[in-house]
Request: fold
Amino acid sequence: MSENSSIEWTNATWNPVRGCTKISAGCAHCYAETFAERWRGIPGHPYEQGFDLRLVPEKLLDPITWQRPRRIFVNSMSDLFHEGVDDLYVGATLDVMRLADWHTYQVLTKRAERMRRLLDASHRDLAERRHVWLGVSVENRKQGLPRIDELRRTPAAVRFLSVEPLLEDLGQIDLRGIDWVIVGGESGPGARPMERSWVVSIRRQCRRAKIPFFFKQWGGVRKSVNGRELDGRTYDEFPRIAEGSQPSRAERQERLLQAEAFLRKVA
Reply:
């Protein structure tokens, strides 16, 4: 877990899974893969195995050790619903989110169908937990838009879209049941361009639907130069969800003991 994150829409990251595999156009220039592969083969480094998929059970309990409430991006360096992560381990990760409920969890996936199946079958109670936000990546019409339909069918209290990297005009988007939309361009070497009109169209649709709109970045090879202003201002809107209260040391210790008991199943 990283106590501080440079990702504009979160406070921290938590990676009980590391590594992933490409499944769609948005994966082509994956920032996480680029970062992880820099460290491949370096003994003792968290990414000694590069971007190979692997479980990191020693990280599962991390959120319970953090007392101050924060927004946590779950698996910024992977995808919790990757087919290589077994159902039991996904369940254990969700159980930690239930126990450490003073945080807000932002769970983002490109594997929307598996997320919907697992939550519909075994974790429907998450629909009552407003501190667990479920989201899907939407980079284009062909692969991204169908994920929104899967998300809408997923039991969730808060649903969001990460429209990044935005690779084309998405046209009219069905935003029913969506609570938050993030938009951003691709960054780094080989970054594909994003047109202003594509972003403005999404902003307009969010305004019409009264959905918070967050503009993350224009992207590009030098994203810091291009910045994140749209029409002269920044958009840092979030769903209006009350944050959890800070737990006492005794409460955290009690929940840590609970978590240790059921996590022995996946050790």
